Amino acid sequence: xxxxxxxxxxxxxxxxxxxxxxxxxxxxxxxxxxxxxxxxxxxxxxxxxxxxxxxxxxxxxxxxxxxxxxxxxxxxxxxxxxxxxxxxxxxxxxxxxxxxxxxxxxxxxxxxxxxxxxxxxxxxxxxxxxxxxxxxxxxxxxxxxxxxxxxxxxxxxxxxxxxxxxxxxxxxxxxxxxxxxxxxxxxxxxxx
Length: 192
What we know:
The chain is built from 3 helices and 6 strands.
């Protein structure tokens, strides 16, 4: 019996020593950073979420006035003094006033890619988002440059921190077509 206990003990010990090697166990821990910081974009191909919050107001007004008066008179002299005198007066005036008021607001959240890293470390971003709903399509395109220190811990950046920002919003569909002027309206605007 003593020999059976020794065999059992050796077999169990051998299994305990060899089992982890046979399983090929690997760690679940990914060593890409510390426990105390979030991963922020820092390489080409990384993504950053831009929080677009832009508003713009443009007001323009102008007025113009112009007036012109002219008069002319003629009468016969010398051998032609029998002709009666005559004259003409002309007066023209023009006044106009106009104003334009335009207000725009854009609120969006868009994830873009880092497409280039400048020598000073700034990140060049580019991305687009397309939303299709009920026959309408809206595209938001964003390009710009951001400093790495302006990217927050949760890997977002406000659009106000994007240098040389180009934010284009385009739409197509039935509603977008109705918002455009017709051919006759464009012709009258061109002529007048």
